[in-house]
Amino acid sequence: MTGLSTHVLDATSGTPAVGMSVILQDAAGGELASGVTDADGRIAQVSTQPLVPGIYHLVFETGEWFSDNDIEAFYPEVDICFTVDDADRHYHVPVLLSPFAYSTYRGS
Length: 108
Known about the structure:
mainly beta
């Protein structure tokens, strides 16, 4: 399977971040795809197309999500910049989120 998926967890509540908008951009900031996290905080296929090798941005609209959930927070968005080096593999970019911190890693 190729493409890109993501998973966002709210570290403060220990629950999925449901309803968060996520945008996939190319290196120049052009929008390639978008989606909204489901009841499990996931977007199974942000992009169903293989990503050609290069640099991409996965932008999480955290400010809007925090506001919708009445949470005071520091980050209006989280922009994860990553490199695709193999068009034949699937990429997974998870985010662990709190109002004043976040972490991410290359998932599987």
